[in-house]
Backbone:
């Protein structure tokens, strides 16, 4: 009887291992250890900063909007950016206040000046330049304040004023 019980337990353990292996093989490879059936988290990051607007810097809206920061969703699922913030080293803060949805693989540019927002651009509403030509640090935080990404740069003497993050 003991032998039969031992064989039954061993068979149950082996069967469980086979099932576990099959479940992990069929799990979404992008789930990053969260397990099957759980939605993958979005991967929202800073993709680049145009820190030096083309031409001479002025307080004209066209000059202000010539500088921008680009945010990308590297995930597969859309993300509502409401409550996400972007800030620079001097603590200028931009907050996504409305329901701005960023689909999987999509980007949105946040321009420094004023304008009409749409699906791929938003506007900080600043009357002065935000991104320092000599160097700065951009920080992207989620709606609860958790830091999601940073991008630091030093200004370029070559002059295109763009950094890929």
Residues:
């Amino acid at each position: 009887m003991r032998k039969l019980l031992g064989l039954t337990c061993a068979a149950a353990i082996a069967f469980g291992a086979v099932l576990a292996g099959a479940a992990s093989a069929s799990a979404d490879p992008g789930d990053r250890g969260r397990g099957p059936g759980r939605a993958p988290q979005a991967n929202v990051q800073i993709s680049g900063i145009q820190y030096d607007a083309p031409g001479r810097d002025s307080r004209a809206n066209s000059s202000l909007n010539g500088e921008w920061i680009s945010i990308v969703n590297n995930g597969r699922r859309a993300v509502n950016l409401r409550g996400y913030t972007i800030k620079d080293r001097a603590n200028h803060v931009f907050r996504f206040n409305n329901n701005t949805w960023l689909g999987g693989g999509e980007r949105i540019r946040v321009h420094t000046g004023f304008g009409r927002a749409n699906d791929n651009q938003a506007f900080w509403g600043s009357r002065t330049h935000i991104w320092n030509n000599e160097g700065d640090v951009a920080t992207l935080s989620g709606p609860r304040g958790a830091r999601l990404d940073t991008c630091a740069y030093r200004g370029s003497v070559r002059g295109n004023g763009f950094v890929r993050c």
